[in-house]
Every structure is written in structure tokens, then in C-alpha cells.
Amino acid sequence: MNQAAQDLIGEHDFTSFVASGSQAKSNVRRIDDASVVRDDVNDEIIFEFEGNGFLYNQVRIMVATLLEIGNGQRPVDDILAF
Prior knowledge:
- By secondary structure, the chain is α+β, with helices and mostly antiparallel strands.
- It has a single domain (2-81), classed as 2-Layer Sandwich (Alpha-Beta Plaits).
- It has two helices and three strands; from the N terminus they run H-E-E-E-H.
- It has helices spanning 2-5, 58-70; strands spanning 10-13, 28-39, 44-51.
- The longest helix has 13 residues, at 58-70.
- The two termini are 16 Å apart.
């Protein structure tokens, strides 16, 4: 998942990661850092994203996509296809 999260870094058109109902004039955003860390002590997976702004439900959809990659439902390079 962390490897796939690196494909989110940079300036991209995140149309595939925005929920309907968004009223943003542009779906282009910049993500400066993305990481996925497993906390075995608390049995958690921590997702962190830093960027210049996020679209409606963008982070929720990115996390869901990364979880599908982690569960083997999508290939690790699937984010590049968006």
C-alpha cells in the first residue's frame, strides 16, 4: 500500500478520486507526501496525506483504493491507471 501511495504524489487531476456532489472548479490538486504505516501495537493502519487541498471525499476514496490494493483486489500499480 505504501508503494502504491507514492504514485499519488505530485500534481494530478484527481477526478477519479472525487465523489459526486463536488463543486470544485478544478480537480487538479498537488499531494506533497503520502504514507501508509502499520502500527502493530495498536493494530492500526495509519494513512497520512499532505497536499495543497483535497476534493470532496478524495481522501476517503484514496484510502479505499489503497486498502483494495493491500487486500490484493487491485494491482499495486493500479493508481497509475487513473
